[in-house]
Design a protein that fits this description.
The chain has about 525 residues and is of the alpha+beta class. It is built from 15 helices and 19 strands. It folds into 3 domains: about 220 residues, Multidrug efflux transporter AcrB transmembrane fold, CATH 1.20.1640; about 80 residues, Alpha-Beta Plaits, CATH 3.30.70; about 160 residues, Gyrase A, domain 2 (2-Layer Sandwich), CATH 3.30.1360.200. About 55% of the residues lie in helices and about 20% in strands. A hairpin with a 7-residue loop joins β3 and β4. The chain is elongated.
């Protein structure tokens, strides 16, 4: 029995020391270099409501994703019809945002119907009519497929935003879906809110297009845009003044490559001016396509377009192999870094709009910490005094378990990088009450056994044995509820569930295991004949 007490005491002491090691960086920043080199240095991660930060509600324009899918599919259909020598004319999009094909005769219409039915299952005829002997067919995405595209757009946007935020270096962000087309983003500790919004909301659609040098830019600016071309703006920065300007440029509408061919994007410093630029590396197929495109268009200008803005349009001097390219544009290091992040994370499948923005200041968060800490301190002091007053020496044992309970709870939260929120502080206060409740059950059972005339040893053994099932049942049911809150809750609810879950497990350990060690020590080692209870 003596050996058992020593082993259990050693286990308890080791756990407390480990918890102190994890908790020390949160208590003081004045730690020796040896500690920082070999021991944990993580502090308690604070949520948005405690350390301040940004709260955003984003809306994904899912209709845009459907429109983009329809446009890509129709362009592919157009190429297919041309390859099969089917005569047609593609009309401008209608008010219903559908594409219309005009066919001069019945054989052309029949050939179109056959290709549509066999190769494009996602498209269906929205309307069909005859106008002056010509067939006019309007196409749209099938409703079932449109619903799938919308759902996928939200899921992809969620993952893309999460990847961007992770690469931005924000600890413990909260990124969750809400409803059919909304995403909630909480970024604790963010101070540069404008940069964060730009990073999250940028579509980051990367395209490679040829510059149209065959037609007049002046005529295009007057409204005479050649068929198959578009007018875009090229972003340029004056090196002397540092001002950025937008210069019109005429591009061919056809996209030769997109960012889907990218493998990675990194910031590098140029040799000539020492300015940062973004170095692109394509995947194997993208490298082959880029080599073919540059080989076919030597001495032509290739525009690198991001979200409709031209960042650079260099002349292709020779065929470029190796699957690498550069985006230059007189970037600052911060701009180049953010651009590389959004390109690595991938483009958003649809634009996102910021519906709601809230910024929590650090002073407000500190006020919440002070009040929450004060509530925990007052609750703990009152409970400690009550337990000593009501249970005397046995109350002191319960107080030791309570202090150890708080130490282990905070240590485990830091070790598992859990986030402490304001509702989480409420969970800690609740845990304090539940930990004391278990000790009250044990002490009352021991009192009953002592009234029956049993010895201290027999009373303690019977008290723990009879109270254990009650303690176990009540804690397990609460633990199940806490796990459900953690699994299905969001934001504040999850923060409450985290501390409650850890607190329940720790309180079971301290109430049943730790206090029993102290009782056994005094009964077996000190051989006390009376328990002060």
């Amino acid at each position: 029995m003596f050996k058992s007490i020593r082993i259990r005491a050693a286990v308890t002491i080791i756990l407390c020391l480990v918890a102190l090691v994890y908790l020390a960086p949160s208590l003081t920043s004045d730690l020796p270099d040896t500690w920082k080199k070999y021991l944990p240095t993580d502090r308690i991660h604070l949520g948005l409501d405690l350390q301040g930060g940004m709260h955003l509600v984003l809306e994904v324009e899912t209709e845009k994703a459907v429109e983009s899918t329809l446009e890509r599919t129709v362009n592919d259909l157009k190429e297919n019809l041309m390859n099969n020598r089917v005569r047609f004319r593609l009309h401008e999009r209608t008010k219903e945002r559908n594409f219309s094909f005009e066919f001069p005769d019945a054989p052309s219409r029949d050939a179109f119907d056959k290709i549509l039915h066999n190769q494009y299952p996602d498209l269906e005829t929205a309307s069909s009519q005859m106008v002056e002997g010509k067939g006019l067919v309007s196409l749209k995405i099938k409703d079932k497929r449109a619903a799938e595209i919308k759902k996928m757009a939200v899921e992809q946007s969620l993952e893309t935003i999460r990847n961007r935020v992770d690469q931005f270096g924000i600890s413990e962000p909260e990124i969750i879906p809400q409803g059919a087309d909304r995403i909630i983003v909480q970024l604790p500790g963010v101070k540069d809110t404008a940069r964060a919004k730009n990073l999250i909301g940028r579509t980051a659609m990367l395209e490679f297009k040829l510059v149209d040098d065959e037609h007049s830019l002046e005529e295009a600016l007057k409204g005479n845009v050649p068929e198959g071309s578009i007018v875009a703006n090229e972003s340029r920065m004056d090196r002397a003044s540092g001002r950025r300007s937008e210069i019109p440029i005429l591009l061919k509408n056809r996209t030769l490559m997109t960012g889907e061919a990218l493998e990675t994007a990194n910031v590098q410093i140029g040799d000539r001016f020492g300015e940062p630029h973004v170095s692109l590396k394509f995947n194997s197929q993208g490298g082959k396509d880029f080599e073919r495109i540059t080989g076919e268009n030597v001495k032509k200008r290739l525009a690198i377009v991001l979200d409709g803005r031209v960042h650079s349009a260099p002349v292709i001097q020779e065929k470029i192999s190796g699957g690498q390219a550069q985006i230059t544009g007189s970037f600052t290091m911060e701009e180049a870094s953010d651009l590389a992040i959004v390109l690595r994370a991938g483009a958003l499948p649809a634009p996102v709009n910021i519906l709601e923005e809230r910024t929590v200041g650090p002073s407000l968060g500190q006020d919440s910490i002070d009040k929450g800490t004060g509530a925990c301190f007052i609750a703990s002091i009152l409970i400690l005094i009550f337990m000593i007053f009501y249970y005397r020496f046995t109350g002191i044992i319960a107080d030791v378990a309570l202090i150890m309970n708080m130490l282990l709870l905070l240590g485990i939260m830091i070790a598992f990088k859990a986030t402490l929120t304001l509702p989480g502080i409420a969970g800690i206060v609740l845990t304090i009450g539940m930990a004391v409740d278990a000790n009250v059950l044990i002490n009352e059972r021991i009192r009953e056994e002592l009234r029956l005339g049993k010895t201290p040893r027999a009373a303690v053994e019977a008290g723990y044995a009879k109270a254990f099932l009650t303690i176990f049942d009540s804690n397990v049911t609460t633990l199940v509820a806490a796990l459900f809150l953690f699994g299905f809750g969001t934001g504040p609810v999850k923060g409450f569930a985290v501390t409650l879950t850890i607190g329940i497990v720790v309180s079971m350990f301290t109430a049943v295991f730790v206090t029993r060690i102290i009782f056994d020590h005094f009964i077996w080692n000190r051989k006390i004949e009376k328990i002060s209870i």
